[in-house]
Amino acid sequence: MREFGTTIFAEMTALAVRTESINLGQGFPDTDGPAAMLERAVEAIRGGANQYPPGPGLPELRREIAETTRARYGLAYDPDGEVLVTVGATEAIATSILALAEPGDEVIVFEPYYDSYAAAIALAGAVRKPVTLRPELGRFTFDPDELRAAVTPRTRLILVNSPHNPTGTVFTREELAAIAELCVEHDLTAITDEVYEHLTFDAVEHIPLAVFPGMRDRTVMISSAGKTFSVTGWKTGWVRAPRHCVQAVQTVKQFTTFTMGAPWQRAVAYALSEEMPWVDGLRTALQAKRDRLADGLASAGFTVYRPAGTYFVQADIRPLGFTDGLDLARRLPGLCGVVAVPTQVFYDDVAAGRPYIRFAFCKRDEVIDEAVDRIKRLG
Q: Is 90 exceeded by the pLDDT of residue 10?
């Protein structure tokens, strides 16, 4: 793990605190989730739900996960054996890679990739094979020929994140079909990070890879409550997968965290059943915040890639005369009192990501407005 060190999120958040800057780097909301859900967690703590819950997760949460997946996507999972509750999606991804990749196996990832992917692949002794997403017609996408060329006899897994952090891309049906075709052809297992599944904009549809022919039984489908219900600190995630995959992932998980907090599980089970209308309102609010920040960044001179999902806007810094996103991100607090994240740290091909920085818009409107006013000083 020597190559990884401190995450870019920890570095930039510490920089924000030290310089008293507005933090548009780390992707966490500055408002809470639905009040009734929060109260369910308090009631669970006061009611004595403070000891180990079952390793696979509370039965009521597993049932709600299975039911919402069936109702939304038409995908049926047995809550007793095909659903596993984890300590956030990050643990779900790490334990899935550790369970399913042997040393020397190759794992395809789309870059830029969330930084925990690379660390989990390294911990498994596997080999990272990046396929680069590049801007095309206002959004980031991949070349199907490059994806196909990345597959070798050693390829074991493909890690698919859609809606995609940090670019904000939501893969289209055609893009997902190309990935599915490749998985079936080469007998690959897909791990899908879908934590932003409910946070898409402009009527763009999130389509799980698992719905494509041949994919339900070769996909480990991962999501969480953190982004959906604005409780990123609860670290409540889950896996939906065929029984043999869940068994393998749980075998790893039992020796990492074993289980996760019972009060949060109870509250999330309630939220999945009763608070999805609140999530609809969140999605509408986030779309307006996206536009607020994107328009502000564009008026400040950046080239802006308006995301179809997630919390994040990608901005090309070159129109303002800058060329190195990492250098600018470290200087930005001194220049204007705002913190962002340099996108290049999420690439193997650093040059491909050097012109971009990532801003988070999951903040109160007045925070976004103040940040934009400060950023305009760059011009």
A: no
